[in-house]
Model the fold of this input.
Amino acid sequence: LFTFAGYLMAEAGTPKRLVRVSRALLGWMPGGLAMVCIVASAFFTSFTGGSGITIVAIGGLLYPALIAENYPEKFSLGLVTTSGSLGLLFPPSVPIVLFAVVAGIEVEKLFIAGIVPGVLTVIALGAFAAYKGLRIKLPRQKFEIKEAFSALREAIWELILPIVLIAALFFGVLRIHEAAAFTALYVLIVEVFVYKDVSFRKDLPRIITESMTLVGAILAILATAIGFTGYLIQDQLPMKILEAMSTLITDKIMFLLVLNVFLLMVGMLMDIFSAIVVVVPLILPIARQFGVNDYHLGIVFLLNLEIGYMTPPVGLNLFIASFRFEKPVTLLYKAVIPFIGLLIVALLVTTYWEDLSLAMLPDGAGDNEQVGQEIDPLEDDLEDD
Done:
């Protein structure tokens, strides 16, 4: 249902409305158009799940505008490529839902845990955009309150959706399946009957087919990955890895460092859905043994995969951007390096400052009191086998 809502917004005029409101509110800042790209992409990716649609929809709108306003080509390419996966930590991101289901933790709490680290990544790239704007003296758009209100009024139905979702989940008004149904119905009504960007008869059947084709592909991947994961667990691979690591890794800090390197490699080589299903059951018991909070682990895991999307040589966003903007992928390798560096700094801060993920959660959420309930029965079953 979240995937359907994301596809519906992509087919409607949502990207243009998001760009307009972002430009009206942020265009006056140094590097204003780059800020617009970052904020609009983060909002849009939260609904599309980092599947490349953001690069095509938002990037396709803003890349020509960035070039027209004399932003350097390499910076512009790096910006739109990086922004394509920037909103993975914001509700209602599908990868967050999948991680919570696989890890056996509460989706609503993982949504809340991702908000502050997600804002940190946006601020990190926004600061770089402002620096770039000041350094090369790029033109700014004058702030006009009339245009700001007009843009907000036009996009208000879409802008309030994530706010309503977060509040409803935080206060327990909606559970995750109810939130998904609410989002799909809300977006359907807004895009078809309020904005009238999508025809109920002509466009809707095609959008449903395309979105459910993606869901079917994800389910096929998950079916295969779950079988493979089941084999690895039956073979006691997590316990073997834990035994091997215990001789080399002696504390939580070292474990988290090794985990980040490993997950960056996973993000480069696997799609995010396969990575979650295959890797999470392997690292979860190990992370718990080292005292890593479940919700904190989820945010670190997803942030690594977000960076992996754009990391050379085989990050998925690189090839999508290369195809969309008709540029050599080797040029994109160079373009994304500064952005990757900034996101890795944000990743390290998030990794070693747990309160960024846990500050908004109830005390004790995801702590290792769950270990005895979840890992011991698994070990007993394996010993019985």
Notes: The CA atoms of residues 238 and 244 lie 10 Å apart. Residues 204-234 form the longest helix (31 residues).
